[in-house]
Amino acid sequence: MKNLKGLTQKEAEKIFEEYGANELKEIVKVSLLKILIRQIKNNFIIYLLFVAMFLSFFVNKSVTAYTILAVIILVISTGFFQEYKAEKAIAALKKMIMPVSIVIRDGKEIEIFSKNIVPGDILILRTGEKIPADCLILESKELRVNESVLTGESQEMKKVEATSERNYKRENQLFMGTLIINGRCVVKVLRTGMNTEFGKIAGMISTAEKELPLQKKVNGITKYMVFVALTVSILTGIVMLIRSVPLSPELIIEVLIVVIALSVSAFPEGFPVVLMTTLASGAYRMAQKNAIVNRMSIIETLGETTVICSDKTGTITTGEMTVKKIFCDNKLFEISGAGYEATGDFSYNGKNINVQKNNSLNLLLKAGALCNDSKIERKGTDNEYSMRGTPTEAALLIASAKAGIFRDDLHFLREGEIPFNSERKIMSVAIKEKRENYVYSKGALEILLKNCKFIQREDGIFTLLERDKKQIMKMNQELASKSLRTLAIAYKKIKSPDKDYFEKELVFLGLVGMEDPPREEVKEAIKLCYTAGINVKMITGDNKETAMAIAKQINLKKGEILEGWELDELSDKELFKVVKNTVVFARVKPEHKLRIVKALKENGEIVTMTGDGVNDAPALKESHIGVAMGIGGTDVTREVADLTLKDDNFVTIVSAIKEGRTIFNNIQKFVTYQLSCNYAELFIIFFGILLGLPLPLLALQILFMNLVTDNLPAITLGFNPSSQDVMNKKPRKKSHILEKKLIYLIIIAGTIIGVITLGVFYFVLNVLNQELVVARTTALVTLIFFEIAHAFNFRSFRKRVLNRSPFVNKYLVYASLISLLATFLIIYTPLNKVFETSPIGWLNLLIAFVASLIIIFVFDIMKVKKGDLSQEK
Fold first, then answer.
1. ∠ CA(862), CA(866), CA(867), 5° rounding?
2. Based on the domain organization, do 826 and 727 belong to the same domain?
3. Do 442 and 471 fall within a single domain?
């Protein structure tokens, strides 16, 4: 690389003040006013309440009218604050993973947030990265870019470095938002933010919000309930009018107000907002556990996952590689130490050796350091390093450092290279050292060995014989069987950096065996997957022996193992038959991943697939849930993925699936609870009128109950924590939120609550011979107690109320206390005149309390007899 010092930090700060952050303005930013308008615009209930308010004014019931106005304000405020909270949570999620870039400032390579890039900055970009600004190419190697985001054309564009910083063409530029498909480059930033080509286009675009699948399901339920509520309310009104002949205008208006109040109470108007709040809070909980949801729509699908196809390196394993063994010149050397600490000894046959006195080993370590795009940087004054790049290359740099070989101390010039990719599985560089030219190569043994004609010995270079190859292959298998990832290294002296001759007739230097141990927690996570009915398949580019050794360590189920070459020989029909019983895929290429996903989907599986490289993008897109790596992944994969792991950990995927199941369960709980309460309210009024009883509840009482005692507990059910048994069930099949069993629960619960509340009303009125206002108040309190008690039934579909601490969901406890406090305020304070209630004695309260416990006992008995109330047998 040319001697590029870049901007100084002070210069960058001054330019930043002038141009601002390298960000695009949010085109679809939801303002507070927009959220407020949304509460009114599409809310049929608000219009009905306004009608009721004007009717109340018309018949001189100003107290009722003002109370309804207060209800309208409360409905709008509740919806506004819930939606605002959901929007804030979603906005926070978007900031969880901030793009970073490598920039040269004050002559040093540093990592900064891409939003802090300024015009004039020098950037280093590599394969898989999204270009953060409009740039001029100063240096490039095999650079190809996808500019479809700007041009609409998906074909790759070849890019070359500019010969001048004043006169340049499109082929010398990179544009914000486009993707590097191959190669690497050094660039100078020309334009940032809204001044970029992408920024100009973005300024002319507005993106419509898409409705989530879950939203469609909930909206479908809402529309159906609106129809039912209106029908029952109108029928109730007709019965009331028939019984009230002769009619007066005041009476008709009073009946209309009751009909409106009943309709409002039966409308599940809070569903859409509660849904978004539940999804947003669930996604935020996932983010706290290192799983960033890129698309809300996948939360539902997470709980349906039947197969996880996971990369091995960095996801199942730690991804922090350490060179443990080197096979060189027919000798197997061992290296002590672990991780990124450059302290360790080299030994042969149990005795420490001096690497500097071993020519072939010294040359291999030097080759590993030079054929390398990664970087290690010392942390403080000790021998611990941090790495930037790939774990494999970092391990080679650390191994070299243990031998006292530091790349920065070597005097060399890189004159050419052929980058590694998943097809070639080799990387080669042309290096000029003093006046000599060399090629250094590293890669998969089976590929590199074919290109080797010679072998390096301690006493010189010799022809590579067939017996040498057999011995090397045997050692490769031996290292792999011990869970070591193997890498072959070769070199040769050349006259000039001619790429056509780079990788021919190489001199074989040796094999490197790297340890990448499984994460300690993975074994338990895989066991949990099997308990939850989820199969796990490990996919790796490593050879068969290494893959099998790791699979054994993490207790993967016994099954078939397929290698990439075997996949190539299988037809799609043949793969369809064997893919389900295959647990390990070794020596896999990205295009194999795509075939694996398709075959599993054809088998009816719901597939979660991980990926990190550029070429993994098609497989991630094809899977039901594409999972990208936040640490080791590329911008390309993060762009198409549904979920990004901040810690690249397999356990995080399992946690996300658990959270996905919990969120869907919570949605089912609040929908079932809310509808059973709405059904009970309709039942009480309709059958009370039909049986010739006085109106059991008045309009304002119905509205109060709907807002305060219905909605508050329902909202908090969305915050139910994960139950311990959520991963003891098989994956949920694609289904509606309301399955048959839940509809039966709604009918059973609503009928019990309705019948008993009506019974209490009748008992107080006709048996205890108390006044109508007292009977109504007792019925109101009974219904409120019922709804609070019933909410506790829905903390779990399986566990009995009496077997769980009330504070499992503390928000439900708080909501219940607020509901009770509000209820007592409208009964035992002057507010009782507004709501037409009356203070009631301890006997009435006791009747209401005892009656409400029935719903808990009924549901607890059902849970004991039937187990999970949400699933069909």
1. 100
2. yes
3. yes
% of the chain surpassing 90 pLDDT: 44
Shared domain check, 834 and 704 = yes
- The verdict on residue 296 lying in a domain is no
Question: What residue type is 491 in one-letter code?
Answer: Y
Q: Tokens for 215?
A: 């939203």
Short-list 389, 412, 448, CA closest to 184 = 389
Whether residues 706 and 819 fall in one domain? yes
- Three-class SS state of 777: helix
Domain termination site, one of 461, 485, 515: 515
Answer yes or no: is pLDDT of 205 > 50: no
Q: Are residues 851 and 810 in the same domain?
A: yes
Which residue in this structure is represented by tokens 């790049």?
A: 389
Burial class (CB in 10 A: 0-12, 13-18, 19+), 126: middle
Positions marked catalytic: 311
Residues 445-480: pLDDT tens digits? 999 999 999 999 998 999 999 999 999 999 999 999
CATH number, domain of 766, equals: 1.20.1110.10
Residues 6+ apart with CB under 8 A from 850: none
- pLDDT of 873 reads 44
- How does pLDDT run across 216-249, given as a tens digit for each residue? 777 677 777 777 777 877 887 787 787 776 777 7
Print the domain residue range for 826: 214-286+657-866
Q: What is the pLDDT of residue 651?
A: 94
C-alpha span between 672 and 676 (Å, rounded): 6
pLDDT at 266: 67
Q: Which amino acid is at 849?
A: F
* In the block, residue with structure tokens 């039947």: 306
pLDDT tens digit sequence for 810-833:
999 999 999 999 999 999 999 999
Residues constituting the chain: 873
Question: Do residue 477 and residue 388 come from a single domain?
Answer: yes
Other beta carbons within 10 angstroms of residue 464's beta carbon come to: 20
593: confidence class by pLDDT, cuts 50, 70, 90? very high
Label residues 434-455 b or e (16+ Cβ within 10 Å = b): eeebbbbbbbbbeebbebbebb
User: What's the rounded Cα separation, in Å, for the pair 330 and 327?
Assistant: 7
In a domain, 85, yes or no: no
269 pLDDT above the threshold of 90? no
Of the candidates 375, 395, 292, the one whose C-alpha atom is nearest the C-alpha of residue 629 is 292
* Cα gap 769→764, rounded to integer Å: 6
| Cis amide linkage into residue 518, ω under 30° from 0 | no
Tokens of 761: 């009303």
The whole-angstrom separation of Cα 265 and Cα 232 is: 12
* Higher-confidence position of 706 and 290: 290
Most distant CA atoms of the chain, gap in Å: 119
| Interval 256-265: pLDDT, tens | 777 776 776 6
Whether residue 301 lies inside any domain: the answer is no
Q: What is the CATH number of the domain that holds 594?
A: 3.40.50.1000
Confidence (pLDDT) at 51: 74
Contact (CB, 8 A) for 340 and 385:
yes
For the cut 80, the answer to whether the pLDDT of residue 163 exceeds it is yes
d(CA 363, CA 553): 34
Q: For 118-141, how does the pLDDT look when each residue is reduced to its tens digit (9 = 90+)?
A: 999 999 998 888 899 999 999 988
Q: Name the token pair of 327.
A: 């096979």
Structurally, how many domains does the chain consist of? 4
Residue 46 lies in a domain: no
